[in-house]
Amino acid sequence: MSKILKHDPLADRGLRLLLDPYLCFGPGTEPIAPTIAAIAARSAALGLALCVEKRSWTEAGSDPDVVRRGVDLSRFEPLTRIADLPLPSARDLKARFMPARSELDKTDLRLLGALHARRAELLVADDGRLHRLAKRAGLGARVITPWDTLAWLDSLAGRPRELIVAEAELPAVLADPAVARMLAEDCEPFDPYLTVRLEAAGSRMLVASEGGITIAIGLLVPEAGGLTLAALASADTARGHRALEPIVAAALTTARRLRIALTALVPLHQDHALLLLDQLGFERRGRDRHGREIFCHALDDAAVRPAAAEQAWLLPLDAASHDSPIRNQLLRTSSAHEPADGNLLLFYHQHAADQIRSASITAAARITSVQQARNLPELLALTAGRDGASMTRQREMLDAGMVSVMDLRWLGRLARPLALSALIERGIIASTPAGALRLEPDALHRLAPELVLA
User: Fold this and answer.
1) 313 pairs with which residues across the strands?
2) CATH 3.30.450.150 matches 163-299
3) Dihedral (CA of 434, 440, 446, 448) sign
4) Rounded to an integer, what distance in angstroms lies between the CA atom of residue 220 and that of residue 212?
5) Which of 72, 110, 321, 408 has the fewest C-beta atoms lying within 10 Å of its C-beta?
6) Nearest CA to 334 among 218, 434, 436?
7) In whole angstroms, how far apart are CA 166 and each of 140, 297, 384?
């Protein structure tokens, strides 16, 4: 494996994943050790350099506490040792980060400084504080949790892992030890009325599972004025957006179907949940009397209605992607004529004989950013942490030219699919598009009243 890291041309071109060494030897990190070991093995197999600071790794090997706990650092090989990571400059500390007041601050700032200085493209870290500091410095997309990293690497290898979200029966689901543990550790201490909510009429439990193992939960409770996501938690080994985002998406879908707003209550220690809800367009409304952050997502029919002078595009999407509960990134070969930041995307099924809604507009999203990748390291860095195209597919796309990476805010499915044939008959479009098609302002104006989310 070490020879792959030494000689693989991709590693030589500079793409590096920096590992927070605390994940390997810190107290209480034993449950996540198999994930870190798997990340090291997958990275080596794909030709990616998983790096640690040489000084930190050497010091950990002789640290009395690490030795006393019998931590076997060799299980995390192969790793690439890199030179000492300095603190960011005084100017960067002031403008991007924060003053270094303690040794913990210095450790975190060295890791983030390595990203800022491009000594590494990505940082694998679990600590919510690190993720918050990264977001504040504009580096949030380049810091990913171990669970999200491993799923991304499996996706790159062409073996994407299937995550299933389903509604489970209450109270039967409470017999699942994983569910009981998440409720007891992350929810009950912050909600004295949780038991009442679990027993309330209309309450429902959303469960995300992978390989038959429960990794995240969300408790939906009907309350005055709307629907409340009263509990949201993931397993300790599955922290990050990948486990929680499908739960939130399912809750939003339920709220839209009931035509009511969705409120979420999140304890302040759940950093990954707080960051996710900010990213998904929830508004913060202060804190409740138990100290939880109150988030609100209003009924958003208008989100899919374009404003004046705004561009909208019809875009083909395969059936498998339509059926995915989350679609937050899209890769396309770059062209001079393509969607841009802020544009509305209306997705239609590509023609398929076995699809009932073939050649119909079924879903909508809004572009939050578009970036171009000229080579594989750039493309991998932009797609990190996402379940998406395999490395083989990404190489094939790059062979055709630059690739546009479109980050999306998924708005949801339309209440009524719009057949392209009907749009042709009405003169809204001239023919079934072969690729991306920008709608003319008059055509978009005529179509707007029918753009209603399910």
Assistant:
1) 345, 438
2) no
3) positive
4) 22
5) 72
6) 436
7) 29, 21, 26
Task: Supply 246's token pair.
Answer: 């499908």
Cβ(122)–Cβ(384) below 8 Å:
yes
Radius of gyration over every alpha carbon of the chain, rounded to an integer in angstroms:
23
Separation between Cα atoms, residue 45 and residue 78, nearest integer Å: 10
Q: How many CA atoms lie within 13 A of 205 on its CB side?
A: 25
The β-bridge partners of 214 are 209
CA separation (Å) from 236 to 30, 35, 42, 215, 226? 11, 12, 21, 9, 30
C-alpha distance from residue 125 to each of 36, 102, 189, 201, 384 (Å): 10, 19, 26, 40, 13
- The string of pLDDT tens digits covering residues 337-352 is 889 888 989 998 766 5
Q: State pLDDT tens for residues 36-77.
A: 999 999 999 999 999 999 999 999 999 999 999 999 999 999
Decide: residue 283, CB within 10 A, 0-12 exposed, 13-18 middle, 19+ buried.
exposed
Q: Which CATH number fits domain 2-156: 3.10.20.310, 3.40.50.150, 3.40.50.1010, 3.10.100.10?
A: 3.40.50.1010
Among 124, 123, 143, CA closest to 132: 143
DSSP E strand boundaries for 374-434: 403-419
From-to residues of CATH 3.40.630.30 in the chain = 163-299
What letter would DSSP give residue 292? P
Give the class (CATH, top level) of 303-450: mainly beta
List where CATH 3.40.50.1010 sits in the chain.
Answer: 2-156
Measured over the CA atoms of residue 214, residue 168, residue 295 and residue 368, the dihedral's sign is: positive
* Bridge partners (DSSP) listed for residue 23: none
Position 9 scores a pLDDT of 39
Contact between residue 207 and residue 165 where contact means Cβ atoms under 8 Å apart: yes
Domain with CATH 2.30.130.30 in the chain: 303-450
The helix/strand/coil state of 291 is coil
Residue 163, φ and ψ in degrees, nearest 5:
-105, 125
Does the pTM exceed 0.90?
Answer: no
